[in-house]
From TrEMBL:
It comes from the Bacteria. The lineage of its organism: Bacteria, Bacillati, Bacillota, Erysipelotrichia, Erysipelotrichales. Residues 1-78 form the HTH rpiR-type domain. This is MurR/RpiR family transcriptional regulator. Residues 111-248 form the SIS domain.
Length: 250
């Protein structure tokens, strides 16, 4: 029995807080995949950790990690049941094609020029977005552009060397999870390029450039697709623009 079936089975015994959690899980299941600990999930959901723990235990799970695994497995199984590999590929393809409508050539050229002229390129990935940050770093190194990648845990080390001559690319699906980092650097004249999937994030006002990308959630697709795929496509696209700018300067 998957977690959603367990929720339906036990719904009559839920408290008002439990029902609120059900609503959050149903509408924002990807938050569970982003957060490694129940403490982080409680913070993102805006509820107490104790309430979340009691809810998970009511469903019969001994730990958050087991609940998280079952939610992920259920989401993936649901996606497969909707039409197999063709349905999954079509969903990814449609969202990638939508990127053409939101990414402007002039914006990409401007960002690429700043990256090409920067002293260092610093890439930061929040949680699962660290993979695209690493990918872009490797791409820059292949172009002989000094670059370094940081994840959500070690990003605080940046303050020891970053200057106004550097460019920061911040990959974060929701945005608000990066608020602590933004608070540290918003007054230091560091050029921040925000790549996000949340056009309402409170941190976008501190970024010099904001790139918004479509995903299954902001397109109301009611299915879970991996955000990293779209970040990785964008990272590869931006790399092509940077390569052109570097070639112009040679």
């Amino acid at each position: 029995m998957n977690p959603y079936e367990l929720i339906d089975l036990k719904k009559s015994s839920f408290t008002k807080t439990d029902l609120h959690i059900v609503d959050l899980v149903t509408k924002n299941a990807d938050a569970i995949f982003r957060n490694a600990t129940i403490t982080n999930l409680a913070k993102e959901y805006g509820i107490s950790q104790a309430s979340l723990t009691r809810f998970i235990q009511k469903l019969g799970y001994p730990s958050y990690s087991e609940f998280k695994f079952d939610i992920y497995r259920s989401e993936k199984q649901s996606l497969t049941n909707e039409g197999g590999s063709e349905s999954i590929l079509e969903s990814y393809s449609n969202l990638i094609l939508q990127m053409r409508n939101v990414l402007k050539d002039d914006d990409l050229q401007m960002i690429a020029k700043e990256i090409a002229q920067a002293r260092n390129v610093v890439t930061i990935g929040m949680h699962k977005s660290y993979l695209p940050a690493q990918s872009f770093q490797y791409n820059m190194l292949k172009l002989a552009k000094p670059s370094i990648a940081f994840n959500a845990d070690d990003r605080h080390e940046i303050k020891h060397f970053i200057t106004s001559e550097d460019v920061v690319l911040l990959f974060t699906a929701e945005g608000d999870s990066a608020k602590e980092f933004i608070d540290e650097f918003k007054d230091r004249e560091v050029s921040i390029i925000l790549i996000t999937m949340n056009d309402k994030t409170s941190i976008k006002k501190y970024a010099k450039h904001v790139i918004w990308l479509p995903n299954s959630r902001n397109q109301n697709m009611h299915k879970y697709l991996e955000n990293q795929v779209f970040f990785l496509v964008f990272a590869d696209l931006l790399t092509s623009y940077v390569a052109k700018e570097i070639q112009k300067g040679e």
